[in-house]
Structure formats: structure tokens, C-alpha cells
Amino acid sequence: MTKSTKRFETEVQQLLDLVIHSLYSNKDIFLRELISNASDAIDKVKFESHSNEALLEGNSDWKIKLIPDKEAGTLTIRDNGIGMNIDEVVENIGTIARSGTRAFMEAAKAKNLAENPELIGQFGVGFYASFMVADKVTMITRKAGDKGAGCRWESTGDGSYSIEDAEKETRGTDVILHLKEEMKEYLDEWRIRSIVKKYSDYVQYPIVMDITRKEPATGVDGKVIEGGGDIEKTVEETLNSMKAIWARPKSEITEEEYEEFYKHISHDYDKPLKTIHYSAEGVSEFKALLYIPAHRPFDMFYPDRKKGVQLYVRRVFITDSCEHLIPEYLRFIKGVVDSSDLPLNVSREILQEDVQIKRIEKSLVGKVLGTLAEMKEKENEQYLKFYQEFGPVLKEGLHFDFANKEKLQELILFESTATEAGKFVSLKEYVERMPEAQKEIYFITGASRATVENSPHLEVFRKKGFEVLFLTDPVDEWVTQSLREYDGKKLKAVDRGDLEIDSEEEKKEKEEKREKAAKEYKGVLDLIQDQLKEKVKEVRLSSRLTDSACCLVADEYGLNANMERLLKSMNQEVPESKRILELNPDHPLMQVLTGLYEKDSKNPRLNDYCELLYDQALLTEGSPIKDPLKFTRLVAELMVADGKAQLG
Q: What is the DSSP pairing of strand 334-339 with strand 309-313?
């Protein structure tokens, strides 16, 4: 065939413009694409040689060779794969509607062949990435098994290409990039090495390059010749490791190898807490090697942190920021997922959000949660180590992952009124040890155990022997909005709404007592209500206090003090809300206030005591008081008055 010039199809020219100007955000991608295509080509000839050994032409030394030529300004990517004839070049490179790889896979499936080669991508698309860095691309290719089927293709990406017959001694393809002046950095050895290491390190064929080094001159005995100077020596060096540990059987991998790979991808000096290595087959096929770290990374709660799981497709690195591969609440997981059949869009930088992604995510989440459940049951000490580091993050899933809510609620742990500091109880254990009279699961939220365990809201629960969970992680306020019940038992905040913890007999007895106290303290209650009307919604007698004088209680669905603090710390606007001031009818203070009121209801000191009661309630819940100077003055005056009374 004499040299001829052809026009690209309209769609191809549109794609070229897109690739050159905007499709890829990172120009390094061009080399990944061309290496991937070369790997595909080798896969194809290996596969087809099973039924036609002549295609090998006596050479099965598979390799992909990179040839930088600084003098010519070219970078060549050479493979000894299947190659193409002229018709295939026109079909695969001149047309976007058809893809060599896709057509090959469809043909292989149609033949119902038992063995499919591992192929990625769409040949025609990745090839065009060359024009991001090259102002001219030359391709010399020859079909395996047909020494007369060589051809030369060339284009500047301007809408046309030339094609002609060409001699090529060996099968395969040479893609020669005539680099743009500003892209000559891609001829530097270190640049090529870094790109191969990042994107193509685990490609299963050697990626080689001739490296020239200066070495001291040596004699036949191998000893350095003094004064002999240096000589240049060129060797073919393999740039990629080809050691995709996740692709090997688990039985062949040692713990040391697992640990070494973990440290490589995580930059962690410690061993992982747990290794998860498995293969998924069936509708979606992929291999996963995941790690649970032993310690929380410093950037766990940084909004711009990198995700921990890297995505590969047939050992070729695609991305380490696939948002849909693993949910936010498992962001501590490190590792690799390598898919056999994941569809990608034309750029390979953005994954299509389709059913395949969702299947992989579902499988990964199920495997991680299953592993954690097994740890909790069989390796409890290990699980406690995990939970102390990642419990707050795991609990986010209760709010965001409704599909796995039941699994997650079995994994979460809490400190409580029945545990020592640093010890935990699960919801299942809590329910199993509930007294028969207890109908609900009780909890209290706060900034720390020290804050909540001395709360006056717990007094009646301690008296009745009802365990109360301590929810002290910031995320717990949102967790309780999603986790409303467990095992048929509702979760109830001890500092919100009314309490229903008494038997019918106890209710009747308390109601009679409360009615009597309400009559006795009516004047004082009205006074306190009037004095604090701008600060509290209501003043009432309490059924939850046994020792303390007072406490503040939120409405059933209102904001408590802890939620207000969290919202303010996040620079959120907190709506104005008033809580309920509850007073202990059995506290001696009520008798004192009633006596003062009956003696002189206009006594200004009563107003001060009302303010002190409110400030006391604020302090016990960990909230700041509005006027600390006034509070300290009143306390000092009371101390003086009490001291004088003590002195007689």
C-alpha cells in the first residue's frame, strides 16, 4: 500500500480536542495509558497463541520497553504483543465507535472460551492521550504471525493521519512520541521512573529501559584499574516490581510480606492490627487486600485527607481518591482493590457511578464489618484496641449507612455507670443485664466521662440500679438521632423529656407526694418561674433528683447543653432555646426558700437565690454561666453570712 492520508471520523477529532485541552487533569496519565495498551497487546497474543502457537514466532520473552531519545526529542513505547495490520489500525485508531480491546473481549466471550486474558481499557481512547505531550505521534506496528502485515501510522492530531505499509522485523507495536518542547521533561530518567512506579508498578510484564551509568574501569580480574578513568556501561533495567501481592494466593504470602506492603502503602511504621485479603467472584470480580491500622492517623478528621484504599484495574493504578469505593466511616481502612471488570469513563480518572461500583463497595463494607464482628467475638482484646482508636469514626456509620445499621449497632461500645473508666459495654450486654423493671435503654451525652458521671440526672437511676450509657464522642449526638431503639428497647436520654421509670405503685406514691409538695412550694415555684422567665421554659419539681438541688432538662426533642456546645464549636448558629429547671422537692434548700418566702415574699435576697439556682444548674451540666462576677459575689456573700452564723 502506498502512503495515503485519511481523515479521522468526526467523533475521533472531537475526542482528540477534548483529550488535548481538557480531559486529563494530569498529563502523566499518557504513559500509564500507553503502557496499559502494551500490556493488553501482550495479553492478546498470549491468549491467542494457545490455539495458534505460530503467533509467538519463537519469542515469548514478554516485555514493554521505554526508549527516551533526548537528541531526537522522542519517547518510544515498544511492546512485543499482538500488533495490528493496516485494516485494524484504521478501525481501532481512526474510529472511536469501536475499540480493539472491547471487540476482542466480546469475541472471546462469544466463543465461550474457558480462559480470558486480563485486559483493561479501550485501546483507541487511551492512545489519544499521547497528543497531550506530543505534537506528532508515529506508530509502527506489525500483526503477530504475518511478517508482511507491517504498517506505519502518523498524525499531528490536526484531523488527519497518514498510513502506509512498512517493514517491521518483529511483531508488536512501537508508539513514538515526538514530544512538545515544554514536555521534554518526560525524557528524564527520574521522571519516567516516578510515573512507572506510581501507575504501572504492578503490571505483570517487565517495563524496561536502557540505563547508561559511568563505572570505574576494571581489568579481567574484576579489580578497578587505578588511573583507568570511568567507562560508560549500558544495561537494560526493569522499572516495575511486578509484585502485585494481592494477586497471589494467601497461602503463599508470609506475615512479613503483608506487613511490608502495608508499610509501603500507608507510610506507617507500625504493623497493621488486622489484614483482610480476599477475592470476589461472580457478578463482580475483584481482589482486595485491606488493612486495619493499629493507630488512628493524625489526619483522621481533616476534611481534605486522602482516602486509604487505592483502586487498580488489572494491576494498573487508577486512583487513590475514589469516593464511592468505601464509605466515609471506614476511611481508616488502608489497602488495594484490583478490579477485573470495572467500567471506566474515557479519562480513566473518574469512575462511572454505576452498579459495579456499588457492588464493590457493598462487598468491601460487608467484609470489613464481618471481620470486625469476628474480632469482637474471638479476639476481644484486639477489638478493644481497634475501638479505642476508631470507635468514634465507626459510629458515624449508624447515622449514614442505614443498610448496615444492624451490623454496626452490634459493634459499637460505650462506657457506663456500671463500667470502670476505659472499660466498655455493648448494647447486647447492656440489654442482657437490664433489671426486669427497666423498660428502656438510658444514656447521657457529654464531653467526657468526668463530665457525665457526676451529673445530677443520674441520681434516680443509680438509686434504682438502672445502668446509664455514657455517650462522650461528638458524633454520639447524631448517632442517637438514628439509633432510636435496640432489641425492641427504646433509647432514652436521661436529660431530655419526662421520665417513665417507676412502677404503677411508685408512680401513684410519687404523684401524691408531688401534689403535696406543689401546694407547699407554690409561692416559691411561682417566684422562681417569674424571676427566670427569660432564661427557662418552665420550673417544676423533679422526679429524677435524689441528692442535688436542681438540674436543667431539655424537651424530648430539644437541644441539650452538649448539643449546643457542639454546634457552637462547629460555628453553627444555635437557635435560642430554653430548658426546664427541675427542683428537688426533698432537698433542704426548698424548705429554706419556702421559709424565707413566707417570712417576706419581697425579700430581694430571694431573687439572688433564684439566679444562684439557675447558675448552679448550668455549672453541673458543664455550661458557662452568664454573669460569673455576679455569681462569685453572691457565693462570697453567702459564705460570709454562713461563717458569721457558725461563729455565733
A: parallel
